[in-house]
Each structure stands twice: as structure tokens, then as C-alpha cells.
């Protein structure tokens, strides 16, 4: 996906036999969990694949995208949690998919942008309108501005889609803040959503994902004694899927209050603890993040976690070995057990 995003894997709905965005958003890990537990409710929606070409039905759909549209956004605070009256750079990427069977066909005789139901100029203007709508109200801009912007952009695109009959079946919005993290490439907020245009509840199938991307930290980690003679660089990415379902005061807003705290927790843990394996470090770190977030959400509204750890120096002829761990907040029954990262006790998964 654009800007290092994570395009989805798509599954087929077992009951209806139709491909839905619930399936589009869920990914293979979540699909396996849901099928093993015998339930299709409360799916985990974190996309997991990394490529520009989606796997599944979306690869047969036409799409239009705007990549890395750069503007500034007033967030109210800086990475040090100080009141700050300067704007921050925000990088926005948007992609919309047309419904399968609705290709963007234009004959050579009518080869003009005005003949297209949806084109990239319309999409770019919509992004600009969303920025103008947000910045028009300073009070609105100060309160969870990143979340507000993504929601406003979603509404603007949805309205244009209705007015111009875009026939879109899925939408991805990604907003990157490269100056919002001390140690990483960027902080990003991603929205995957099915428009369901014309429905009574157009935000039914939704995934809002907060990502700390590419945190570069020094850690004492390795099997061998010589690896602990000096700390080595790790690259850590943490995804927190809030699965807010479009609720106006869902977990994604509460989560944004913890941005600086979460980065501090991750940095302190990685740089002050000693591990032999990436898996051991990852399990402990996820348990710690879950503990810190635990009081912020109701059990049925809590986010799911995904953690990637890369160790560039470990394999000389490769960029880096990598492990990626996924932990759903509410574990389905009947999927065995794992060892809790902190207590060492067995938990059902």
C-alpha cells in the first residue's frame, strides 16, 4: 500500500458466499481465529500483508489513489507533550476501489477526465477540502486532530461518491506524521472502511489502526555472549487496531491520548532489558503495552496488537531477520494456550 501501508488479505463470507469488506479487512490470521472459534462476530480487522497488489477480490477491481499528499496539521501538542502552536507535517495517502464488475472504461473518442465517474483530480480536491474543513475550526483542530481529519476525509469522499456515483466498494486512508515520534520513521493513523453508501449505518465495517513505524532502538539481545558486549540496533513497528466501527467516541480517540506515553514505554523497555530471542522480547513487550492500555477501554472495545521486530546485524547476507507477533485483545475459546509474557502462566487462546 502507498507510503508503506498494509494492503488487506480478503476472505469469502461463509454464510452469504459474497466477498465483504469485513472479510477484506480481517486478514488470514483473523480468519483462522474466527473460523476456529466458530464465530464471525467482533472480527479483528488489522490488515497484515505488504504489497501494492491486494490478494483476493480487490485485485480484480479498478482503483484510484493519491500518494503522499503533503500538508500541515495543527495538533496542539508536540512529541514532548508541550503545548505547541506550530503545525506538523502530515503525509496523506488515499485509495478507493471500484466495485467488481464496474471498471473505469473510457473509449478513445471520450478520452477525457470529465468522462470519468471518479478520477485522481477529484480525489486530490477532496483531500484539500478535508484539510480546509478541519482547520476552519481551531477548537476542533486541537482535539484529536489526526482522528478528526481522517474521519472528515472519509465523510468527504463518501459524499462525493454518492453525488457522483463512484461505485466504490472499499477505501483506505493513511495519514503519516513524520515529526510526531522521537525514535521512529513516523506515527500513522490508518482507516480501512466499507462505504456501504446509502445504508442506515455506513460505518458498520471499519478498522482504525494506529502505527508506530520503524522505531530504531538499541538493545542487548542475542543467543551468544559476544552479542551482549555491545547493544545492537533493532527496528520495531507496533500496530494498534482499535476496531472502533466508526463510533464517534470510539477507542481510537482514547488511544491518541497515549501516543507519547506508549513510545516512552516501548523505548525504556527495549533499551533496559536483556533477552536472547526476538520472540521473548516481543511477547514481554506486547504484554506490557496491553497492561498500559488496559484501563482505557471496555473489554469489548479494546484494541488488538501486532508487533514486528527486525534485527539487521543478525544475518550478514540479509537486510534483517524479522518476527511479527499478533495478539487479539479478546482471545477466542478453544484455540489451545500460550504462555503469558509476564506471569509465565498458561492462557487460553
From TrEMBL:
Keywords linked to the UniProt accession: Folate biosynthesis
Dihydroneopterin aldolase/epimerase domain boundaries: 210-327
Single biological process term from Gene Ontology: folic acid biosynthetic process
Positions of region (Disordered): 1-45
Keyword Zinc: no
Gene Ontology MF terms in the entry: dihydroneopterin aldolase activity
Domain of life: Eukaryota
Protein name per the record: Dihydroneopterin aldolase/epimerase domain-containing protein
